[in-house]
Amino acid sequence: MSAPIVEVRNLVKRYGDVVALDHFDLRIEPGEIFGLLGPNGSGKTTAINCILQLLTFDKGDICLFGEPMTPTRYDLKRKIGVVPQNVALFEELTVRENIDFFCALYVDDRRERARLVDEAIAFVGLEDYVKFRPRKLSGGLLRRLNIACGIAHRPRLAFFDEPTVAVDPQSRNAILEGIRRMNAQGCTVVYTSHYMEEVEEICSRIMIMDRGRSVAVGTNVELKALVGAGERIIVEVAALGDAVRGRLASLPHVRRVTYTEPELVVQCEQGGHNVGDVLGVLADAGCAVGRVYAEPPTLNDVFLEITGKELRD
Ligand SMILES: Nc1ncnc2c1ncn2[C@@H]1O[C@H](COP(=O)(O)OP(=O)(O)OP(=O)(O)O)[C@@H](O)[C@H]1O
């Protein structure tokens, strides 16, 4: 088995009294799109900055590409791309010049660099904007430029820290598609977000973080199986009495029943014929039922189950 591309053991980072990372462990294999999912302040950015040695930390070991990472391991840093949360660009340089500047930190050869910069521009779809300065770009285009600057040198490992915050849907899709393509071309990706839908959509494995710790790690399917969360059944029904609600709550596989007229929500565990059972109880009670639909479990259900809190407060 090949060495993990990222291995973090027992990482502790404090800011004064705040414990931002609390004995944090992480292992990412080559070829993954690995998601770090957690609410604001759970420690995602701190974890990335420690891994990259941009921050000092109190304790812990970090290996990248199977080798110990230190602030002066420029040979390892060359193989890494970073797309930070805050857009960091030079206002006086054009789109093309910005990308060239960042690429030049790693690639000396001008001709090689010109080719890589062209590829990066095409990769994020900024061909029509190469002569623009950043202030002329929309938020979504700025994010795309930020990405091009981070990945033009063709890293083998790339960190994307919340790259889709405040972008339009078109740029969001372009960003996610670009990440998938990079990954298909052999780049391992670490992707942080507090948007569970995005993480579910593109990540091969996901770590759920809370208060500087990993609370669960696995594929999307594994995480949902871990807590046994099943679908949520939503039924429009008028004037539902307590007795019927009690019968619904005592059905096998039913965890929680809530009713705010006219919406009945039945949270189930995995398995069983839940929709049929719920509708059976309502039919027996003579309830007139309107719209019925079921939503599959989400990573928010997993987070709620483990931490007792919503992922998005
Ligand atoms: N420079 C700093 N000084 C003091 N405390 C900090 C600093 N940076 C982060 N923290 C604290 O460390 C904890 C982790 O923050 P971090 O930014 O890593 O979380 P995050 O999951 O990346 O959140 P976000 O999505 O908001 O960036 C939080 O409690 C935060 O307030």
TrEMBL record:
A GO term, aspect molecular function: ATP hydrolysis activity
PROSITE patterns attached to this UniProt entry: ABC_TRANSPORTER_2
Gene3D superfamilies in the record: P-loop containing nucleotide triphosphate hydrolases
Annotated keywords: ATP-binding, Nucleotide-binding, Transport
Keyword field contains Secreted: no
UniProt keyword Transport, yes or no: yes
PANTHER family reported in the protein's UniProt record: LINEARMYCIN RESISTANCE ATP-BINDING PROTEIN LNRL
Protein's name according to its UniProt entry: ABC transporter ATP-binding protein
Phylogenetic lineage: Bacteria, Bacillati, Actinomycetota, Coriobacteriia, Eggerthellales
